Amino acid sequence: MLGIEQRRSLGRSRSRRWRQGQEGTLMLLIIALALSSLAWFALVFAPSSNPPCSHAKDTFSLSSHSQDAKDAPHQQDAKDDNMLGTRNGSAHLSVKDIVFGIAGSARLWRRRQEFVKLWWRGEEMRGFVWVEEELNSLSSSSLPGVMISEDISGFRYTNPSGHPSGLRIARIVQESFRMRLPNVKWFVLGDDDTIFNTHNLVSVLNKYDPSQMHYIGGPSESHSANTYFSHSMAFGGGGIAISYPLAEALAPTMDECLHRYPSLFGSDDRLHACISEIGVPLTIEPGFHQWDIRGNAFGLLAAHPIAPFVSMHHVEAINPVFPQRDSLDGLKHLTNAMKIEPTSFLQRSICYDLKRQLSFSVSMGYVVQVFPKIVYPRVLERPELTFKAWNKKEYAAEFDFDTRHSYKSSCRKPFLFFLQAVHRNEVDMVVSTYKRDEATDNMKRRAFCFSWPLPPHKVQEIQVISKPMNENWHL
Questions:
Q1: Do 370 and 415 form a contact (C-beta atoms < 8 A)?
Q2: pLDDT tens, residue by residue, 154-213
Q3: 286-337, pLDDT tens digit by residue?
Q4: How many domains does the chain have?
Q5: Of 472, 201, 468, nearest to 312 (Cα)?
Q6: Is 443 within the bounds of a domain?
Q7: Measured at the alpha carbon of residue 334, what is the angle toward residues 292 and 399, in degrees to the nearest 5?
Q8: Which of 27, 150, 269, 425 is most enclosed, with most CB atoms within 10 A?
């Protein structure tokens, strides 16, 4: 047996070893944490052998893991919508499985048809523009067919602020279903001033089982609009996707349902009311954009959420999206970019040049912003408040998403490079060129801002070289 002193000595020895082991473990944890922190800072801030921002001579070149778009008109829409796989194991979804129901007006169609031409592909798509009376203009193969809505005079409409056309538009899904077109999986509703990215629309709908009831879309950007109508309602201008089984359930009950809601304002709230009676909730997809905004849409286009861009609406209510172009020409320029690489359209890449203290924020197919200081991603991901709400107010509280105010100092504002042209190189990478905006430089010059980090006489263009994103990146 051990003596008392031996046991005490053994106990002290074990205690020392335990403390030493604990201290060693703690030191290892501290070293590991320090190394991981250093690695993170190195990834975010330090240049590497393959830096995200590189420059040579007088042209900056940015490499990205997403793909941009092409400027010139192009007949090939990058990737065939028919080739998209499904997540739920059902058959491949094609754009031909969708029937579009576009709410139109005979009075406005001559002008609004130009917006539909920007995205409609007549040989591949099915759908109709629904108007209240016969059109004077001739139909075109580059546009969907025109249908005259059924008479709505038998329905009561008592809302003092709205218009009875809301009844007619609410019934588009019902009238479309009653046409009994073959092989339909989805009905997608929109307006004649809505622009769809149909490739991304198919990709997003591919996440859902079309044999189940689905009501998919997005709310308004306007807090006031969501509060007045509903935060759980899809706004039709941004697009509403209704699966075939839900349309099948709506069709026989729609008219009876509409008689119960004579006091509602428009079409979206009526459709929402009738779908709610069936018990189907809204599934929100952030790429459907109602765009209840006015004025300069730059802030939204330059900071799209990390989600496939599906649609935008109210394109007549915004300023031209590119400098020195009118409204329609600017939208053509933008949608030409969208058609070539629709998957990454308006997705953002952020990188830094620490030597010059520059921050680059790239909105694919639209603009490159170069900030003359380090601006962290948490700030850049918030849309700059360049626009007003639909009620013409421009306070941050008017919007149901994060925003940031523009820099008051002209010297802190970013240099802007807008999309000029894009081409595919020999290895099918997309090389897009962004040209420096003279108006921004003139504004900074008047404010006596130093431009030495990015002198105009040396840097007039920025090239972005990118490769395709995985089709399922958003899943």
A1: yes
A2: 999 999 999 999 999 999 999 999 999 999 999 999 999 999 999 999 999 999 999 999
A3: 999 999 999 999 999 999 999 999 999 999 999 999 999 999 999 999 999 9
A4: 1
A5: 201
A6: no
A7: 20
A8: 269
